[in-house]
Specification:
The complex is a heterotrimer.
Chain A (H helix, E strand, L loop, with lengths): L1 H29 L10 H8 L1 H34 L5 H13 L2 H11 L12 H30 L2 H10 L4 H12 L1 H16 L3 H5 L5 H11 L3 H33 L1
Chain B lengths: L1 H43 L11 H5 L3 H34 L4 H16 L3 H11 L4 H10 L13 H25 L3 H9 L4 H29 L3 H7 L6 H10 L6 H29 L5
Helix pairs in contact in B: 1-12, 3-7, 3-9, 4-7, 5-10, 7-9, 8-9, 9-12, 11-12
Chain C lengths: L3 E10 L2 E11 L4 E5 L6 H9 L6 E6 L2 E2 L10 E4 L11 H11 L4 H14 L15 H14 L4 E5 L7 H18 L2 E6 L2 H7 L2 E6 L2 E6 L1 H6 L4 H6 L4 E9 L4 E4 L2 E4 L11 E6 L5 E2 L7 E12 L3 E8 L2 E8 L12 E6 L5 E4 L1
Parallel strand pairs in C: 3-8, 3-9, 6-7, 7-8
Antiparallel strand pairs in C: 1-2, 1-4, 4-5, 9-10, 11-12, 11-14, 12-13, 14-20, 15-19, 16-17, 16-19, 17-18
The chains are: A mainly alpha, B mainly alpha, C alpha+beta.
The complex binds adenosine-5'-diphosphate and magnesium ion (MG).
Magnesium ion binds next to helix 1 of chain C.
C-alpha cells in the first residue's frame, strides 16, 4: 500500500520535472534579453512589433471564421444524423476521424494541386480564394474535435422531444437548430470552439504552404532571426492555449452546475 | 380521417428532402476539402507528368536519401509513440490507481489537455530555450554540476532532441486517452484475482493488460500518426537540417529542392499509407481483442 | 477455538468508526449470514476477513493462525461479489481455472477440476462462453465456481443475489446452500434481505451501525430478538408503547389496559417500554393457550391472497395480525368490535 503511493509520487514528480522545465526554460529565456538581469524587454519588443499585431490579429480572424464555419457544418450534420439518419453515423464518424489519419501536410498538398491557378476552381490564385481555402482547411483540421464535442453534447439532450415540441409550435428547421438545439449544446460547441482556436492560432504548415502571412509563419520567421523574442512568443502562445483549455473546463463545470440546479 | 391520410405523404416527402439538405453541406465539404484532395494525391502518385499510369514515382521513394528520410521518420514516430505510451501509462496509472490526492489528478488531466495541444512552433521554441546551446537546463547543468551537454555530443537539433520535444505532446495525449480506460478497470477484478492467489504482476499480465490492450494499441497507432504528421515542430526546431519525411515533402511542395511534383505525390502517398496501415492494424487488433465485449 | 475467529475487530475511515468491537467465532463448515441495512458495515467486515482492508485494531484467526496482517493473495479465501466481477477477457473455463493457473497447477489437473466445477454449478455446456454471453444468474454461478475451484478455507459472499431477478434469486440461494453443504465449506454470506438470511443460514449476525446486535440461529433471531433494532429489522412486528407497572410481578400497562406477563421483567416500575409481538402470534377471538386477551375493534382489513392482514385498534394503538383466507368465511368488516388473544410468552418487552 505504502509502496504504491511512493511509486505514484515518483512517476508524477519525474513527469512534473520533464513537463515544467521547458516552461521554466522558455519563461526564463524570454526575460533575459537585457544583460545583467530579468526584464520584459522581449515582450515589449514583440508586442510593439507591427508585424506581430498584424499577423496575430489575422490569425485570430482566421480562427473565428473557422469556428463559425465549423459550427455551420457540424451542428446540422450531427443533429440530422442523430435524428433522421442513424444509418449514416458510421460513415460520418469515419470521415470526421480522417483528419487524424491523413497528415495535414498531405491535405494541404492536395489543395495546392486541386485549387491551383490552372484548375477549374483557382482558389490559390486570389487573396480571397486563398483565405477561403485556408479557413476550409482549418475547419477540416478541427473537424474531429468539433464533431466529437457537438455529438457528445447532443447525446445528453433529448433532441427528438425538443424537435417535436418546437415543430408543434410551428418552427422551421433553421429556427429549430438556431433557437432550440444550438443553445442546448452551447457548452459543447464552445469546447470545440476553444479547441479549434488553440489549434488555428499558431498553425504553421497550411499557412506557410498557402503563402499566408499569419501568426505561425511569423513565429517561425522570428525563430530564424531573433534570439529572445521567440521565447516571449512561445510564452504568449502557451498562455493562449491555457486560457482556451481553462475556459473549456470552466464552461463544462458551469454547465454541470446548471444542469444540477435545473 | 381520409384527408389527413391524403395529406401526410406529400407533407413528409419534402421534409425528408429537407433533411438531406441538412447533411449535404457536410458531405460536400468533406468531398471538396478532404476526400478529393487526398484522392488527387493518391492518383497522382501513380501518374507521370503526361498523365499516364506508372509506378516510376513510387520507385523514386527508394532512392537512398528519401528512404533514409522515411526511415528516420518511422523510427522517430515509433520511438516517441512507444515511449509516450509507456510514460503516459505510468502517469495515468499513478493518478488513477496510485492513491494520490484528487486535486492532483484533476490538475494533471487539465495540464495534459493544454500540453497535448501545445505542439508546433511554440513548443520548439520552448525546447530551444531549455536545451539549446544557451538553454536553461544546458546552463544549469554546466554551472551547477559541471556537465557540458553539448560537449557530450547532445544537440537539440538532432534525432534525440526532436524525440524529446515530441514526447511533450505525446505523453499528455496518452494520459488523456488511457486515463478513462484505467478508470474502467473495476476494483473487484483486482480483488477477485488477489483472493484467488494472484500476485499484482499476475493480475496485470492475465487480466488488466489484456483488457487494456485494445486501448493501448489504439493509442499507439494514434501517437504514431500524430508524430508522423508533425511538421511544424520539426521545422521550427531544426530548420530543414534534419531530413525527415514530412520535412522533405514540405521542401518538395515549396519547390526548394528539385521541382518534381510527382515525387511529392509519392512521398505524400507513402505517408498516407503508413498512417493508414498504423490505424488499420489498430482496428484489426482491436476487433480481435474485443471478442469478449458486446 | 472456532475455525474462523474474529476478535475485537475495529475499523475507522478517517474519523468515522464503521465497525465497532466486532466479535464472532464461526465453526468449520458453518454457514453464517451477516444481515443488516445498507451502510451498517457488513462489507467492511467481510473485506477485512478477505484481506482487502486493514483493520484499525483487533485480530482475525483462521484455523488457529493469525492472518490479520497477511496479504489477500495468501489467505486462501474465496470471494463472490455482488456484481459478479468475472474477468471479461477470459472464458468461463479460464475464469474458473484462474486460481489454479496462477498457483502453477498443471494443465491436466486444471482441466479436470474445471470440468468438476462446471458440473457442480450445472453449466457443463458453457465452458467456452465469455462472461458477456451469460445471464446474470449464470455469471454468478461461474463466480461461485471460480471461488471454489482453489478449495479455499473460507467462502465469502457479498450480496451475491442482489443484482438478480426475484425468481433466480430464490433458486440460486437454494443452490448455493446445496453446494455449501456438499463441500462442507465455512461460509459467510452478506445480505440485507432478511428472508435470505433466515432461510439459508445456520446462524445469523444482525448488524446495526457497525455493531453486531445479535448472533443466533434464525429461530432465535426471529423469535427472541435481543434488541429493538433486531426485532424491527427481522420480520414484521407490532411495536406498542407501554409502561412498566410492576417489574417484579411482570405487569405492564398498555394505555390503561393492564397486561400480566407472569415473569420478572428487567427495568424499574414506571419505565416506558415497547411491547413487541409478531402478527402470526396474535389470534382473532379467544384461544385456549393464549392467556392474554385484549378487546378493541377492526380498523383495517388487507386481503393479500392466502393471508389476510387485519389491524385491530387496541387501547388507541394498532395491532396487526394475520389469518388464513377461508373461502367460506369472509373477513370481518371494519368497525366490528373484536377480542384478540396472544400467549404471554410471545409478548416481548424491549427497552423503548
Ligand atoms: N473506503 C472507504 N472509505 C470511507 N468510508 C467507507 C469506505 N468503505 C466503506 N465506507 C463507509 O463505511 C460504512 C459501511 O460501509 P459498508 O461496509 O460497505 O456497508 P454495507 O456493506 O453494510 O452496506 C458506510 O458508511 C460507508 O460509507
Ligand atoms: Mg455492502
Amino acid at each position: 500500500m505504502m509502496g504504491k503511493r511512493l511509486w505514484s509520487w515518483l512517476a508524477v514528480v519525474l513527469g512534473g520535472i520533464y513537463f515544467l522545465l521547458p516552461l521554466v526554460g522558455m519563461f526564463d529565456f524570454s526575460l533575459r534579453m537585457q544583460r545583467g538581469g530579468y526584464s520584459f524587454e522581449a515582450y515589449r519588443i514583440v508586442l510593439a512589433d507591427t508585424q506581430f499585431q498584424q499577423t496575430f490579429g489575422y490569425s485570430v480572424m482566421l480562427a473565428l471564421l473557422t469556428i463559425v464555419l465549423g459550427i455551420l457544418i457540424v451542428v446540422p450534420t450531427a443533429y440530422f444524423v442523430r435524428l433522421r439518419f442513424p444509418g449514416l453515423r458510421p460513415i460520418v464518424e469515419f470521415i470526421t476521424l480522417l483528419p487524424l489519419v491523413i497528415p495535414p501536410i498531405v491535405i494541404v498538398f492536395g489543395y495546392i494541386r486541386i485549387y491551383n491557378t490552372s484548375s477549374i476552381l483557382p482558389l490559390t490564385g486570389s487573396w480571397w480564394g486563398t483565405n477561403i481555402l485556408l479557413v476550409f482547411g482549418y475547419a477540416t483540421l478541427s473537424l474531429p474535435y468539433m464533431y466529437r464535442s457537438v455529438d457528445t453534447g447532443l447525446r445528453t439532450i433529448d433532441i427528438a422531444s425538443l424537435t417535436e415540441a418546437a415543430q408543434s409550435l410551428g418552427s422551421g428547421w433553421a429556427r429549430i437548430l438556431a433557437v432550440v438545439i444550438l443553445p442546448n449544446v452551447f457548452v459543447s460547441v464552445l469546447s470545440g470552439a476553444f479547441l479549434t482556436f488553440a489549434i488555428v492560432i499558431g498553425e504553421y504548415v497550411f499557412a506557410a504552404l498557402l503563402n499566408v502571412n499569419s501568426f505561425g509563419p511569423y513565429m517561425v520567421w522570428m525563430g530564424g532571426n531573433r534570439a529572445y523574442e521567440p521565447s516571449a512568443l512561445a510564452v504568449v502562445a502557451f498562455a493562449i492555449t491555457w486560457v482556451c483549455m481553462g475556459l473549456i473546463q470552466l464552461f463544462t463545470r458551469f454547465s454541470k452546475f446548471s444542469t444540477v440546479r435545473r | 380521417m381520409t384527408t389527413s391520410a391524403a395529406i401526410l405523404p406529400s407533407a413528409v416527402r419534402p421534409r425528408q428532402a429537407l433533411n438531406w439538405f441538412g447533411v449535404a453541406p457536410f458531405f460536400l465539404f468533406a468531398l471538396l476539402f478532404l476526400i478529393l484532395p487526398t484522392l488527387n494525391i493518391v492518383l497522382g502518385a501513380f501518374r507521370n507528368a503526361e498523365g499516364q499510369a506508372t509506378l516510376e514515382n513510387l520507385g523514386k521513394l527508394f532512392s537512398p536519401s528519401i528512404r533514409a528520410a522515411f526511415w528516420i521518420s518511422i523510427e522517430l514516430s515509433l520511438l516517441t509513440a512507444a515511449l509516450g505510451c509507456v510514460f503516459g501509462f505510468f502517469i495515468a496509472a499513478a493518478i488513477t490507481l496510485g492513491e494520490l490526492p484528487r486535486w492532483l489528478r484533476n490538475a494533471i488531466l487539465t495540464f495534459s489537455g493544454v500540453a497535448s495541444n501545445f505542439a508546433g512552433v511554440p513548443l520548439a521554441f520552448a525546447f530551444i530555450a531549455t536545451l539549446g546551446r544557451l538553454g536553461f537546463v544546458t546552463m544549469l547543468l554546466r554551472h551547477w554540476f559541471g556537465i557540458n551537454l553539448y560537449g557530450l555530443g547532445f544537440n537539440i537539433v538532432s534525432f534525440l532532441g526532436l524525440a524529446l520535444t515530441y514526447l511533450y505532446f505525446q505523453v499528455p495525449l496518452m494520459v488523456l486517452i488511457i486515463t478513462p480506460a484505467l478508470e474502467g478497470l473495476r476494483r473487484e477484478w483486482r480483488e477477485a484475482a488477489e483472493s484467488l492467489g494472484a500476485t499484482g504482476f499476475q493480475y496485470w499480465r492475465l487480466v488488466a493488460l489484456p483488457i487494456l490492450w485494445p486501448s493501448l494499441l489504439g493509442t499507439l497507432a494514434l501517437l504514431f500518426a500524430n508524430a508522423f504528421g508533425a511538421v511544424a515542430t520539426a521545422i521550427a526546431l531544426t530548420g530543414s537540417s534534419l531530413s525527415i519525411a514530412p520535412i522533405v515533402l514540405f521542401a518538395q511542395i515549396r519547390g526548394d529542392v528539385l521541382n518534381d511534383p510527382h515525387l511529392g505525390y509519392a512521398i505524400a502517398f507513402a505517408m498516407i499509407v503508413l498512417t493508414a496501415v498504423a490505424n488499420g492494424i489498430y482496428i484489426l487488433l482491436r476487433l480481435r481483442a474485443e471478442r469478449w465485449v458486446k | 477455538m472456532a475455525f474462523l475467529d474474529i476478535h475485537h475487530l475495529e475499523k475507522s475511515f478517517g474519523a468515522q468508526r464503521v465497525v465497532k468491537d466486532f466479535n464472532l467465532g464461526i465453526e468449520k463448515g458453518e454457514f453464517v449470514s451477516f444481515l443488516g441495512p445498507s451502510g451498517c458495515g457488513k462489507t467492511t467486515v467481510l473485506r477485512m476477513v478477505a484481506g482487502f482492508e486493514m483493520p484499525t485494531s483487533g485480530a482475525i484467526r483462521i484455523d488457529g493462525r493469525d492472518v490479520t496482517g497477511q496479504p489477500a493473495n495468501r489467505r486462501k479465501i474465496g470471494m463472490v461479489f455482488q456484481a459478479y466481477a468475472l474477468f471479461p477477457n477470459l472464458t468461463v473455463e479460464q475464469n474458473i481455472g484462474f486460481g489454479l493457473r496462477v498457483a502453477g497447477e498443471g494443465k491436466a489437473e486444471t482441466r479436470v477440476r474445471v470440468a468438476e466445477m462446471l458440473e457442480l454449478i450445472g453449466l457443463p455446456q458453457l465452458g467456452n462462453r465469455y462472461p458477456f454471453q451469460l445471464s446474470g444468474g449464470q455469471q454468478q454461478r461461474v463466480a461461485l465456481a471460480r471461488a471454489l475451484a482453489v478449495r479455499p478455507q473460507v467462502l465469502l459472499l457479498d450480496e451475491p443475489l442482489s443484482a438478480l431477478d426475484a425468481k433466480i434469486r430464490v433458486s440460486l440461494r437454494e443452490e448455493i446452500r446445496r453446494i455449501q453443504r456438499e463441500l462442507g465449506i465455512t461460509t459467510i454470506f452478506v445480505t440485507h434481505d432478511q428472508e435470505e438470511a433466515l432461510s439459508m443460514s445456520d446462524r445469523v449476525v444482525v448488524m446495526h451501525q457497525g455493531v453486531a446486535d445479535q448472533v443466533g440461529t434464525p429461530f432465535e433471531i426471529y423469535n427472541r430478538p435481543a434488541t429493538r433494532f433486531v426485532a424491527q429489522f427481522v420480520g414484521t412486528l407490532n411495536l406498542l408503547d407501554a409502561n412498566l407497572l410492576d417489574a417484579a410481578a411482570g405487569r405492564i400497562g398498555l394505555g390503561d389496559v393492564p397486561v400480566a406477563l407472569n415473569r420478572t421483567l428487567p427495568g424499574r416500575t414506571g419505565d416506558r417500554v415497547s411491547l413487541a409481538l409478531r402478527p402470526e402470534t396474535v389470534a382473532l377471538g379467544r384461544k385456549e393457550e393464549r392467556n392474554v386477551v385484549l378487546s378493541g375493534h377492526i380498523a383495517e382489513v388487507h386481503f393479500l391472497g392466502s393471508v389476510i392482514r387485519i389491524r385491530v385498534a387496541v387501547a388507541g394503538q394498532l395491532v396487526s395480525l394475520d389469518t388464513f383466507n377461508q373461502p367460506d368465511r369472509p373477513p370481518p368488516s371494519v368497525g366490528t368490535p373484536v377480542e384478540v388473544s396472544v400467549s404471554d410468552r410471545d409478548l416481548l418487552v424491549l427497552a423503548a
